[in-house]
Amino acid sequence: MKKYDSEQRSARRAANPPSRSKARGHERARGASTDERGGSRRLDQVTEVLKQVLSWDQPADVLLSKYFRSNPAMGARDRAQVAQAVFDVLRHLRRYRHDAQSIAGGLQAKLAVFGLYASLDDAGRQSILTPEQLTWAAHSQQIDPDSLAFGLRFSVPDWIEQEIKRLPEPESYAESLLHGAPLDLRVNGLKGERQAVLEEIQVQLQDSRFSAQATPYSPDGIRLTGHPPLNRWKLFSDGVIEVQDEGSQLLAHLVGPKRGEMVIDFCAGAGGKTLALGALMRSTGRLYAFDVSAARLGRAKPRFARSGLSNVHPVVIRNERDDRVNRLAGKAHRVLVDAPCTGLGTLRRNPDLKWRQSPEQLQRLCQEQASILTQAAKCVRPGGRLVYATCSFLYQENEAQIEQFLQQHPEFALVNATECLPICPTNAVDGQGMLRLRPDWHGTDGFFAAILQKNI
Ligand SMILES: C[S@@+](CC[C@H](N)C(=O)[O-])C[C@H]1O[C@@H](n2cnc3c(N)ncnc32)[C@H](O)[C@@H]1O
How far away, in angstroms, is 269 Cα from ligand 1 center? Predict the structure, then answer.
């Protein structure tokens, strides 16, 4: 399976489909087509996309985008209905597969019925589903979730169930993963000030079903309910705002770069954190954006251009032992390793990851993470800092990596994350100072970060 950065994909995705429970409420897809042929067409469309998505060859949002590109006649509402139904199925796949066993017919079509039923309002359901489909979908929805075993109830594979059960309040955590995520924006400090931008957005959203408010922990963040067409906003094209989860914004504060410093974003991907770091540096000093993927760094370039930053130096490296990395040995004040990981902290946005990841893939990733961390550490100057982060909740990718690193690198010591955050979220920092953010407690994606300082 291809490694990828779910956060980048999430940022690209214009519409983040809501969860089943949200869909039951005010975010329901409205105004389903009323003619019968339109109804069965919608069911066919969802079934067709599910056939592709459930092969797990590519991420669901990539396949959806391809499908929409090859069906240009579909309007925005049609696309939203298909995407919402597909994402609902991915969130509840184990449960729906189980409920579908007692019903005749092809699996994908039955899953499509469940997904559409859960994500449409009554009028939409009636216009798309037959009376028989409505009856069995309603029956499935009426089953008391508390009567189901953990894996079925929260629709997670057994190995992920075991991992969630290692966390405090596992049921609350698992429940939060069945919901869609809000759309967080970061205000680019070089081009705007949060309060003024927030007021501008609020005026823009007046009389619409969307709303905006300041994020609780990141001083640069704005949280939107709903998904307005951001890429048509001038604030976006002018580089005043960027899409970035609040948790991700906080990671840049943990790195805490200062004006004029040399900073390395070792796994820069499409540049989400590079942009936040560059803004904190007020576009001074030197900010290297490394990545092994030319395609991802390529996607970062228009974002760098919009941001107005002039201190970013994107560099495609062959691997973490590349000569261009070695040349910076002992030079950097701050190094961020936003490591390639399972991405399981982003299941609200990327529910397919729970079915696309595996214990074998986890093992491969852990080896890669350890190697990247070791090489990145060589770039840190005495007194400088290395920040290791993942968007995963798995102990193996997080605390275990740091414990192993500290055993092998006694010249580094942990710094308490509380000291580096503008406002520290409750229960987010453990006894050793490592940060763990989670959707149910903090409203962010699941993130882990540790700050490591090198002795002088
Ligand atoms: C979690 S993503 C980074 C996301 C990015 N920091 C952001 O905020 O948008 C991990 C990135 O690590 C990159 N990567 C994988 N192996 C690498 C290596 N050996 N050295 C540097 N980057 C690597 C991947 O291409 C991917 O873009």
Answer: 5
ipTM, two decimals, is 0.99
Domain ranges within the chain, ordered by starting residue: 17-143, 246-454
Q: Does the annotation flag 338 for ligand binding?
A: yes
Supply the DSSP symbol for 232: G
Q: Which CATH superfamily is domain 246-454 in?
A: Vaccinia Virus protein VP39 (3.40.50.150)
pTM: 0.91
Residues touching ligand 1 (Cβ under 6 Å) are 5, 7-8, 266-273, 290-293, 296, 317, 319-320, 338, 340, 372
Q: What gap in Å lies between CA 253 and CA 251, rounded to an integer?
A: 5
> Ligand 1 atom 17: the closest Cα is on which residue?
292
Number of alpha helices (DSSP H) and beta strands (DSSP E) in the chain: 22, 12
What tokens appear for 445 in the block?
A: 């994606």
Give the contacts of 165 (CB within 8 A, at least 6 positions apart).
150
Q: Is 291 marked within a binding site?
A: yes
- Distance of CA 211 from the midpoint of ligand 1 (Å): 32
pLDDT digits (tens, 9 = 90+) for 244-280: 999 999 999 999 999 999 999 999 999 999 999 999 9
